[in-house]
Design brief:
alpha+beta; five-stranded mixed beta sheet; four-stranded mixed beta sheet; 11 strands; 26% strand
Length: 229
């Protein structure tokens, strides 16, 4: 009799343990995961002046990553334009699908930007904030926003001193226009990979050498010969 009772108690305990583990597992996989902005810096300054005049629209991408598990279904990121934005939705930009696909841990959200006449003498901006929804909680507190600045004025990239100066030296408008023409790169802010920087620097040096051999020294608006380190 004691043996039967002991076995019964063991089976009951095992059942309770199994039920508890199943419940914990369900909570783990059913609880909303969190999401945050991947790219640092979490902003991009885009100028249509870096593109041919025939370009009337372009696409930029904001990258997000989840904290937690992938899901068997698509999940939506709740992105909200912060109050006070000077860039107008549907006119200056359109936000594409903000979706983390089934089985994925990250997503690139497209932002379609449009070349408007007013951008020739102005700069507009919008900040997209992550807001909690049924699919995602908010992730790291300092990685919940992405700022987009849009213009059609040729400007010195905000990260020239910290990123590009090592490869291209002092900034000048003539030098920058030359880089635009020989590299084809249109976005000069945001995240930059060292391999890309070295590749662009090599291409620029070769192009400048060919230019100098054909036309003589390239002189910038300050009367200084354009050169690269």
């Amino acid at each position: 009799m004691k043996l039967i009772i002991k076995k019964g108690l063991l089976m009951l305990a095992a059942g309770l343990l199994f039920a508890s583990c199943t419940k914990d597992k369900d909570l783990l996989f059913n609880e909303p995961t969190a999401i945050y902005v991947v790219a640092l810096p979490d902003s991009v300054d885009f100028s249509f002046a870096t593109t041919p005049t025939s370009v009337i629209s372009d696409t930029l991408f904001m990258t997000y990553r989840i904290i937690g598990n992938a899901a068997p279904q698509d999940r939506t990121i709740n992105l909200v334009a912060r109050d006070g934005a000077t860039a107008k939705a549907g006119y200056h930009y359109k936000l594409g699908p903000a979706v983390v696909k089934a089985g994925e841990f990250a997503a690139e959200v497209p932002v379609y930007v449009y070349r408007k006449a007013g951008l020739k003498d102005s700069t507009v901006q919008v900040i997209f904030d992550i807001k909690e929804n049924a699919d995602f909680k908010t992730g790291f507190p300092t990685r919940l926003r992405y700022k987009l600045t849009l213009t059609d004025i040729l400007q010195k990239p905000s990260n020239w001193e910290t990123t590009w100066k090592t490869y291209f030296g002092e900034y000048s408008e003539v030098k920058f226009r030359f880089l635009l023409s020989v590299t084809g790169r249109t976005v000069w802010t945001g995240a930059v990979y060292p391999g890309d920087s070295r590749f662009l620097a090599g291409r620029a040096r070769n192009a400048l050498l060919e230019y100098n051999q054909t036309y003589g020294a390239l002189i910038d608006e300050n009367g200084v010969e354009v050169s690269f380190p």
